Amino acid sequence: MSTSQHTPVVPLEAGAGPDNPPCPACGEPLFGWLAPQPGLAGAISRCESCGLGVVGGEASPEEALAELDRLRDGDCIRISNRASWAGSLGSAGWAGLTPGTRYLFTVEAVRRLIAHRDQVVAGCRWAPGASFANTWQTLLNSVTFGHNVALGALRGNAVAAPAKKGWQRKIDALASIVLAIPAAIIAAPIELIAGPTRRGAVLRIKPQLL
Ligand SMILES: [Zn+2]
Question: What distance in angstroms lies between residue 47's CA and the mean position of ligand 1's atoms?
Answer without folding.
Answer: 5
